[in-house]
Design a protein that fits this description.
This protein has about 200 residues and is mainly alpha-helical. It contains ten helices and no strands.
Length: about 200
Amino acid sequence: MENKRILFNEQEKIFKERTGNDFSTMYKKYYTKLVYFTSRICNNPQKAEDISTDSFLTAFEKINKYDIDKSQFSTWLFTIAKNIALQDIKAERRNISIDVEYDNDGTTMKDFIYNIENENTSYDIIKIKSDIMKSKIRELKDPYRKVIEMRELQKMSYKDISKNLNKNLSTIKSQIRNGRILLKKQTENDFKKIEEMY
């Protein structure tokens, strides 16, 4: 425990030498701004708080790598936060239903938002396409809007949607399938324009 405290004190000393302030001061100065910044990337306030905390801890642990002559501390810190946020999105992208689930009831959202196999897919393109998709979902008429929102945005299972709407399972699957077909048609031109721009 004593050795850890000595190492921590040394790290604090280096941190102050490199940044001009102690860790707690810099944390208070930038934490709120960092949460706002990362929430714009991940679109999740709670996750943004976790990412911001992790970013500060990473900066503290790797303060030896911070070159004061190349950038301001805030620039370096926000770059760390951006990288952590994007890594988190990439990991999450492989786990959410629109990315990994595929069934026999129609194409999945990931088929026309982006290709999961393409590791070089730009986050900007994915974000823009996702925003377009959400907008188009809101424009769908019922019964398609409701079932697509529940399935793709709320990640509800077919059975839960069926129970919630008091409709039989085959009807729900049919509506989701048809809703996805409509979405694909409605977003096709917009997606082409985005891909041409990038």
